[in-house]
Amino acid sequence: MLQSHQSELHDRLDTGVTELSTFRDHERPGWSREVFSEAYRASREWTANRMRAAGLEVHLDAAGNIVGRLAGLDPSAPALVTGSHTDTVDGGGRFDGVVGVLGAIEAARLLAAGGRQLRRDLLVVDFLGEESNVFGLSCLGSRAAAQELTPADLDRCDYRGVSLGRAYTDFGLDPAKLSDVPWARRPLQAFVELHIEQGPTLEQRGLPLGIVTAITGIERFIASFAGSADHAGTTSMEDRRDAMIAAAEGVLAVRAEGCGAPTHGVATTTRVDSESRSPNVVPSLVRMYGEVRSVDPGWLSGVQGRLGAEITARAAKLGVDVGFEWSSDNAVVEASRGVQDVAGAAADTLGLPWMPIPSGATHDAVHMASLAPMGMIFIPSKNGKSHCPEEWSSTEDIAVGAQALVATLQRLDGGDTRPQH
Ligand code: GLV
Ligand code: MN
Ligand code: MN
């Protein structure tokens, strides 16, 4: 790449991260820009303008995704798609998702400036609301584009009782039309997402790139513990049916489940709520929220049975009953063998060392995999930190990722057959 193009790429990525990070919810910690928030709404015009300035034709689709098109020579050829998301978790950082959107826009700019028009259309997408939200559902925009958002999903309610369908309406989107996304119905050649690793492996190994092999599946649960309300001063320790102690045992059982995974597995309790407001009442109803993840579908498919039985048995010893609500956020998804090979060959040509790597985080790529052969390119995360304000990747590393994305898209554009799934 020409020196002038390189320093322009560097500067544009650097200012892009900085400018986008100014759209944040000042009442919340970190760089919060949650889906449906005012900060997120305000940031979207910035993103659309960035796409327009890179020469893309931009539209907002019915699912709420911002889509920029770089026209190819043959509009009937299956299109290439790249992109990620610009929403954050509450208290999140500046790079998760943002790197994949800015990297995709810069890739399109470089391809347009390269003088050799692509044969295929290139679609750059900023997907709506990738992070799991107050409705407990991730990847809203890619899920809807893939026709995987269900009517039951729209009925999910947040802690105030507001439904997801209502949140869409308030954001200016029609919940009845979310899957009406023509770009996702046309033939697609491949989807490639650039993303930060969100873990420590690449940094520890001194590698600039990872090529994703598979994306974790996620099972989420709410466990409700029902004990007995009693006077906290007069009821002996033996006579209590304390729902809080049963939940504490449940937290330890969740940890033991993750620690016992044979290959890759993690299990997290994220919240425990008690209905008891008074400090002098033994808690009678406690809810515990969490999730279990793995790239091993066999182990993950058994988690509901194993963990349910263990938590129930521990609670029974305390005289406490337990009920579970399980929901699957997504199944384990393998990256396309063909796209992995193309991305690896592109990195080799650029002289960039890389490793195959599984993703313990979920991504829009999970849902795009049902529409097109899917691949992901990871860049290092400083100290492996993510979903926190300290999340950081250097502009040099992001620029390397964008170059790898360009080279991968060029190779995919040239292929006559669809990469192997
Ligand atoms: C998203 O980043 C997730 O893995 O939950
Ligand atoms: Mn992400
Ligand atoms: Mn994330």
UniProtKB/TrEMBL annotation:
Pfam families named in the record: Peptidase_M20
Organism superkingdom: Bacteria
Residues that coordinate or bind Zn(2+) 1: 85, 96, 195
Cofactors demanded by this protein: Mn(2+); Zn(2+)
PANTHER family per the UniProt record, alphabetical: ALLANTOATE DEIMINASE-RELATED
Family: Belongs to the peptidase M20 family.
Protein name: M20 family metallo-hydrolase
Organism: Arthrobacter echini
